[in-house]
Structure formats: C-alpha cells, structure tokens
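Q: Predict the bound structure with S-adenosylmethionine.
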Amino acid sequence: YSSLFMATTLPRIPCTKLALRNFDMNYSLQFGDRWPSIRIGLLSEQKYCALINNFAQTEKVIQELELLNAKDFIYESRQRSLALELVIAAGSSPKDERSGCLDVQDEELRPDVPIDGDGARAEHTQTVLLQSSFNYPRIKCYTFSKGDISRFSPARLDSMGRLSHYLMDAASLLPVLALDVQPGDEVLDLCAAPGGKTLALLQMERCRHLTANDLSTSRTGRLHRVIQSYVPRELCAPGSLRITCCDGRDWAEEESTYDKVLVDVPCTTDRHSLLEEENNIFHKMRTKERQSLPMLQLELLIAGLLAAKPTGDVVYSTCSLSQLQNEYVVERAVEVLAVEYGVNVRIEDLSFFRGLFQDTFYFFDGCRVGELVLPHLTANFGPMYFCKLRRIT
Ligand code: SAM
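A: Predicted complex:
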C-alpha cells in the first residue's frame, strides 16, 4: 500500500529530464569528450533555414533575406565546388590557387587527410570531386552563417495564396539532397509527414512520380495541408503525386519499382525530447514504444530497400544521435537483406557529400557508416543522421 501511495504522490519527473538522464548516460559513452559541447547545443535554440517556395512569388522575400546576410547554402556549396573543379581543370594544386584569386579554403579538403606534400591533398581533392558527380537540384535554401543566430520571419502568402518559404532544420535537407533524385525518377517517401522533406522533393521538380506515405492519419492531414499551401494543384494531380496512409512496413508486398526511396523513420527526436513535455517519447507510459524503436526502424528500412528496384537508392535518416537507431539499424538491415531475401545492398560512401556542406554543418567524423550532423552552438542544426544504400540485386 505504501509503495502505491508513494507512486501516486511522488512528483512526476518531467520527460525532458528523463531524456537528459538517458542521453547523459548513453551519449557520454558514445561521444566521450565531445558530449558536453553537443549537449549544450541540443539544449540551446535550434537554427532554422528558409526553404524558398519555387512555386510562389518570392523576389521580395529573397531580397530581404539577402539584406539580412542570409545565404543560400546550396548555391554557396555549388560555387565552391565549381571553383575547385576549375582549379583541377587548370592542372594546378588547390594550394597554388589559394594564393591566387579563387576563394578555395582548407575546409573543402578532409582534415583527416594528412598533409604530406601537395600531392596527397591535391589527389584527395580530385578523388572527392570525381566521386561527386552530384547534380545540384534547383532548390534555394537560406541559412545564417556559422555564429549568426538571427531568426527568420514567418512565411507570407503571395497573391496566388501560396506561402513564400518553409522553415525547417537545414540538416533535414541533407537526406533529400543525398538521395540525388534524377529527372524522371519514381520516388517513394515512406514516412513523409508532416512533409518538410516531401516539399523539398517537390521543389526539385525532378520526380516523374512521387508517393508520400505516413502511418498516421492526423499527420498525413498535415502533409496534405503543407502541400496545398506551397504547391500548384496541377503538380498534385494523381499522375504526379500520391499520398497514402499505410504502415510502411508492409510496403514491399505491394511493389518494388522505385528509383529512389527516402526512409525518414520515427526516432527519439533527441532535440524535441529534451525541450518539450508534450508528445515526449521518454514518457514512462511510452517506455516499450521507445525500446522497440530500433526494431521498427529496421523493419521500415528493410521495407524501403525492398521497395527500391535493383540499382535503386535508399536514404535512411533519423534526427537522433543514437548509434542503436543509426549505424546499427543500417548494418543489420544489410545483413537481413542478404541472408533472408538474397538481396545485395551496398552502403555508399558520402564523404564527398560531407565535403560539399561542411561550411554550413558540423559533421561527426566517427560514424562507421553514414554521416551525422552534430548540434553545435555556432551552427545549431541537427542532430541528423543519414546513410545512403544502393540496392545491387
Ligand atoms: N519525413 C518527415 C518530414 O520531413 O517532415 C518526418 C517524418 S517523422 C521523423 C517519422 C514519421 O514516421 C512520423 O510522421 C510517423 O507518423 C511515421 N511513422 C511511424 N511509424 C510508421 C510506419 N510504420 N509506417 C509509416 N510511417 C510511420
């Protein structure tokens, strides 16, 4: 009786506190000395980006953003990579050019490559660029530079009733960019709501057809509303876009025809769990659900891989720092696919991709597979883990 009494009268420990305890225990082991810096980033205000709506009248908004010194980080990355390509085409080492007029910085090169003379560095740069047949999409996304913590103003309606921009964590765009959608691709977004990544996919105007799915009816409703507020009706016709509401784990049984599949799974949403009591996965009543997340993630990734056609690409992503939800899920999925389905999958090296965007984000250099954006006080995006897998057979 007394323990029942205690259980009902003791003040409830806030979920955010439980989350912090859990992260302190696990992430201090996973990240060692880096954890205090990641922790303070996670507990501080997150940075956003403004994904410009290509389907709205946005000249004024863009002018205002540029006056505030916000930069389109995708455009900036493209300019730097073009500059490097010029350097290589000219046959000189990046170091030679750095003293010249091109703005080529050390950050373009991987810091982990030893500087044993110009040769190694230049060769590395060349490899990076050769690997990066990355086809920059037509999307504009403004961020404030490292150290600038200005905020964006809310989106505005244009004369056609479309919103000017969508505020999201800039790191959330990386899984979409890593998918590298090509014109004419058939694309599946398996866990799509509320729709930030779906919207980015639509902004590219490269998909022949996009299927956006989510298990939750209410969240699928939000996805519908986001799309209606940003995208012209003709691009939402069934021939271009299909929104479905089913359990992604059952997808493989229906079809396996996609060129590109995005599997942006439910996770411990680390930042949300530390800051918001509402809908917190660290609530005592949700312990089982939290503990079974890696299994759900594994099943979703397997379904995504089976939905891709051979040679198709899948990007797996979470907004958690947890190795159990990130690398372990990816490695286990590759194993299960081979052993249980006879399907071979290759994990792609994204280090060139990290090179393209490391002026904007802090990437962790200790992932066995995939890439992880770490929250940092001066560039407080993420966490965002993403890993690209190619289906071989
Ligand atoms: N991609 C979304 C975006 O960019 O806005 C965010 C996706 S959120 C991280 C994960 C989503 O997975 C949630 O909307 C949740 O409803 C959905 N989900 C959970 N279990 C699922 C399942 N079994 N099948 C499909 N979706 C699921």
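A: The two ends are 61 Å apart (CA to CA).
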